[in-house]
Amino acid sequence: MLSDLPRDLAEDVLVRLPMTSMRAVRLVCKNWNTLFKDESFTKHIVQTKAAAAAMDFLAVMVMNDRVYLMSVNLHGIDPSINHLGKLVSLTDSAQVDISVVYHCDGLLLCITRDLTRFVVWNPYCGQTRWFEPISRQSWDIYAIGYENSKSCRSYKVLRFCELSSKDIRYELYYINSKSPRDMTNPITIFPDWDIQFYARGVSLKGNTYWFAQEMCLGGDKEEGKTRYQDFLISFDFAKERFGPRLSLPFHSFMEETVTLSSVRDEQLAVLFQQDDTLHMEIWITTKIEPEAVSWSKKLLAVDMRPIYDFPIGDIAGSFFVDEEKKVAVVFDIDMRDTYTEMGSYAYIIGEDGYFKKVDLGEPSKEYSFPIMCSYVPGLVQIKRPARGSKRKRREKEKKQIIEYL
């Protein structure tokens, strides 16, 4: 029987299984479930997966409200993208509709389509923790990050929204907390910058960065276009506050595409595309901190018009890069498909005109765009709130809603 296998043989079998099978494997027998709770074994699994990820990029993607794990192989003559499976271990309900996902240190932050709640999820460990926002807005922006302490990392979720054209309210939710006080009271600030509601922040070294523009009634005009001051804005999860403006190596117009990605959780990459010429370029930082940034030379500069005559979308245009090969993989829809059922594609773009379009095999429904983030398995444990605190927490939430709405 499987449960009678010697430990070394069981480890050799289990380490070869894909990430999408881990939940099912733990249900096979008590011995295997116990093995997955062994820290030395789980470290071995993660190290093995990380070594494999050095050859194949892992990506988590939301398509049609479901979460998928993808493998991207850029090593070889013909790069390829493969579905590894659907991630279904949101144990509360496998039918929860997810609109967007963020990654930080092996944790996924998933926002439900109806915006009534969100979940922090470690797919590898099969652990989840659900949160209900203390208030509800039409459009909220989320981020996940952490604060380093002497003994461990303290993981947090940031949620903020515009109350008006001049002020923003934000709150923090503490993932590791077992206390009823697992969130802050809402804080209102009056920034001189604006982050678009569809912008997805990128977690890097525990902090999150967004593309932002100056908040003003009008910008500089040039050939009928409006140019605003543009820059990066960060949120420092240790200091629990937004940082100063960080410079970009270009200036964009209001209608142009700017989107962010991370490189090995060490550097930030930014994709910029002009809407008229379709010229696309990608830059990578040499240094990035909440209060300082410096940029390398352009990693990639491509004239996209001869190969794809539509601009990459702000909403769907998530991407990642292979710095060594100078290749970018951009995930988007194809605007030339019918509007009610648009195709979901990956565009592999390299130097010297290299271009490959990969059909992801999942037609995108109306108003549903493929949203991707890179993923590396991790061992972060998600703590459950203490028993008996649920009623107190709900009473606190109701009180906060009355006070701050």
From TrEMBL:
Signal peptide: none annotated. It comes from the Eukaryota. This is F-box-like domain superfamily. Pfam families: F-box, FBA_1. Residues 1-45 form the F-box domain.
